[in-house]
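Usage

Read records sequentially. Each one opens with the input sequence:
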Amino acid sequence: MFKSPHVLVIGASGRFLAQSAVLAGWQVSVIDLFCDLDTQQFCSSSNQINTAELSIGGAYKVDALGDLRFGEKIGVGEVFKGVESDRRAKSYTIVFSGGAENYAEFFRPGFWPVSKIAGPSESSIKRLLSWSIIQNVCQRHQIQTPRTIFAPDHAIDNRTTWLKKQIRSGGGLHLQPWTHGEEVEFGEGFYLQEKMDGPTVSGCFVAKQEEGRVTTVLLGACRQLPNENLNDFRYQGSLGPVQLDARDHEEMERVGRRIASEFFLNGVFGIDFILSENGLHLVDTNPRIPASAELIERYYRISRSDFTIVGVHLDATERGQIPSPIKDFREPVFSKTIIYLDSQFPLVVNEKMVEHFKGSPWLTDVPAIGTLINPCHPVITVHAEAKDEQSLTVESIRRIKKIRAMLSGRIQPSQK
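and closes with the structure output:
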């Protein structure tokens, strides 16, 4: 497996990729929006790895990915100055998590000092930021997609349920139902897309480039957890890996190959589909490691102890090597559920809450003491494992209720 000098994770949340890098035996640093306790701990524990030769891992919180700033003072260059200060850094290999794909410049060679990027090119990301380009590619290859409207159209079918979508988004944010007659900022990053019935299924792929050709493998698929509120489209988490029937598995493989070849993708990436009565419909592409890849990694490691998603990603991007996939998924099955703050009042994380969180090994993304969590924002992630989906659902619900009960007793109007 490729020996990376130092993995630097950049994105909305870097905890899983930090964990994966540590499992691979590498040093890791993270720049994300949360700087959760377990993220910090993974970075710290990686400092025990070859510290005589490498820099020292650390976790860094930023207010926004778009300008990568600490508060209002520190810019891109100063972020790296802080990361590298007195650490004898030789180079970083950058791996992106969610949200980074909204900024094509992040994928530009030379944008990041003393670093190389493990992932697609800037030109690939720019094309993927245009849903009209994606849809044209899909039409050419007979890949089903929902109906989409990119410009004002007085003949919009009012019998169809439409969603208003924003090109630069992630995790279901900026996605909302559209009311017929409501103004849409066409040409300013918004468009309408038909809302389809059926579960969302996410394919996790890995691609390598060799002599101008792209080879793609489907590692597995996970099903996104449904939202309790039909008008809430935030990413709630995933369940999987799931076993697709032969027709859908073959189609998902074909779509992955076509998209990777057309957009010249490399490394691990994800594609989201709606599984309707008429088969798979492509609704989103993620040209970086998707969140559901965590469940894929957990399953593969049962039989392949050296398997890590970050390792697979870097093997593909740096060495042009991809693993043989598992095609027959049996037990167990895994889930991860994001708990959002369901309150009109903010929550300040205190020491007792952190002690409670850290006492449960099935919780991740643990916020640090003093963290202010606003209403509707993520609090923590609940994991579960079982031999089948029915047992998994029962155990997951039990754990979720336990966490929500604990949270409900700690949110008071005085904290506003």
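Summary fields computed downstream for this record:
- The longest strand covers residues 213-224.
- The chain has four domains: 7-117, 147-194, 198-319, 333-415.
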